Structures are given as structure tokens and as C-alpha cells.
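This follows on from our talk about sequence and fold. I would like you to pick a protein and set down its sequence and fold. Go ahead and set the record down below:
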Amino acid sequence: MRLPFFVYGTLRPGECNHDLFLRGRTVTEEPARLAGAVLYEGPGYPYAVEEDEGVVRGELVTAAPDGYEQLLAALDRLEDYAPGDPANLYERVARSVTCDDGRVVQAWVYVAAPTVAAHLRANGKPLDNGDWSGT
């Protein structure tokens, strides 16, 4: 599936990985939010942990069609994600995100892998406002 990406950490505009990975590779970037997740502080980057309540704020990024597969592979590497790998820090999952204009869009989201999520729930520091760039 060629879904857009919901980014909420270092890939957001103005953050360190945006220019490295997304500049010139997107056709749109717009504010959006992911319901059903809580944002936790990480070691220099955040983790979205799926929970019943909570909202994570970020951007919906639509990749340029001609470079989609390359961008997907680059983001998977950045997020230490490999399908089925139990050592993943993140899992890439398709989730509904809501744009500021009210549209609901299916997007790829990198959420904390189960082991990481369990550790964060037990010992992590959630960000109350769900917005990493606002910390």
C-alpha cells in the first residue's frame, strides 16, 4: 500500500531529520493528529504508544510518487523497522489520522514496538500535550 506517513518527531518540519529524509521527496505536508496514542519522551526522539486514550500531534506527509519505495525503505531504516523482527524499536502500522480540515486519512505510523511500549508504560514519561515539537 502506498500510504502517506504520519510523522510526529524528528521528521516534522524544522526537526533534524526532516531535511535529511523528506525535503524534495514530498508533495504535501499538513498538520494532523493520531487518536488512540500517547506520546512518550525517548532518547532524543519520541515514541507514540498505542493506548485507548490520547492524541499525538504531527504532520501527514504525502511522498512524491516517483520516489515512494526509496523513501519507505529509508524511513524503515531510520526507525530501525524490519517486518517481523522482534528487535524492532518501532512497528510500521496503518492507522487513521485526522487532518486539521476534518478529513480522515489512512497513513503509515511508526509506533513503539510491543517491548518498547511496555517499558514506556511502566517507566516512561508521557508528554501531556501529545506534541513533541511543543516540548
In short: The longest helix spans residues 68-78.
